[in-house]
């Protein structure tokens, strides 16, 4: 049963996970970065109306991903690939960010598979029209339904989907970066011998 309230609490944007209580530990800083990426994706879609670009741009900005040409490539991917309702643009933007975040095709595929699994758990699929059905109860597959889609909160629901896609992909990117950091600090600790 679709429930738009499950996906967004109100027009102000996605739910914040960080405590914002002054702590600066690694978990709080990570949550703040994910909140920033999610809010940016939400606001980008509301301002620019391209789900793929909104999601990718938010992740590039808040996770320091390179690939300026990638944004230009998102133009035709909104609305489920050129408005056809196929793969959700937020999914495509998130997958592009995952690809930009890795050096290895194998790692990129693993991250993409994890993203698709988490996103599908939340929205029952990755197709634009399936995501619309999960959030507002029906899909806007006919241009004559656009006004109705706007009236029931379709644009806000899609902005929330961009936010969630950015949060899921951002968490995967940060998690993928974390083991290298832990390994390096572990090596530094191992090299410190008490007798040296």
- How many strands appear in the DSSP assignment? 0
- Apparent shape: globular
Uncertain residue ranges: 6-11, 181-196
Mean pLDDT: 82
Biggest beta-sheet profile = none
CA-based gyration radius: 18 Å
What oligomeric state do these chains adopt? single chain
Distance between the termini: 64 Å
Question: What are the defining features of this structure?
Answer:
196 residues, 9 helices, single chain, globular, disordered C terminus, mainly alpha
Overview of this protein structure:
- The protein has 196 residues and is mainly alpha-helical.
- It has helices at 4-7, 26-48, 51-63, 68-73, 89-100, 105-123, 128-136, 146-151, 154-191.
- It has one domain (32-190).
- The chain is built from 9 helices and no strands.
- The longest helix is centred in the C-terminal third of the chain and has 38 residues, at 154-191.
- 38% of the residues are buried.
Summarize the structure.
This protein is mainly alpha-helical.
Write the topology of this structure.
Blueprint: H1 4-7, H2 26-48, H3 51-63, H4 68-73, H5 89-100, H6 105-123, H7 128-136, H8 146-151, H9 154-191
């Amino acid at each position: 049963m679709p429930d738009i309230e499950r996906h967004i609490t109100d027009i102000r944007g996605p739910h914040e996970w960080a405590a914002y209580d002054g702590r600066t530990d690694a978990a709080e800083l990570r949550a703040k970065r994910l909140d920033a990426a999610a809010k940016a994706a939400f606001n980008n879609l509301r301002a620019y109306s391209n789900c793929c670009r909104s999601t990718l741009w938010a992740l590039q900005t808040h996770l320091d991903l390179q690939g300026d040409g990638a944004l230009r490539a998102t133009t035709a991917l909104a609305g489920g690939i050129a408005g056809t309702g196929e793969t959700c643009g937020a999914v495509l933007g998130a997958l592009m960010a995952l690809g930009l975040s890795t050096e290895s095709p194998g790692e990129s595929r693993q991250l993409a598979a994890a993203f698709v699994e988490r996103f599908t758990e939340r929205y029952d699929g990755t197709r634009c029209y399936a995501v619309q059905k999960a959030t507002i109860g029906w899909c806007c597959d006919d241009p004559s339904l656009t006004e109705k889609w706007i009236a029931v909160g379709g644009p806000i629901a899609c902005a929330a989907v961009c936010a969630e896609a950015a949060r899921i992909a951002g968490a995967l990117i940060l998690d993928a970066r974390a083991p290298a950091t832990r390994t390096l600090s572990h090596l530094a600790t191992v090299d410190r011998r008490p007798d040296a």
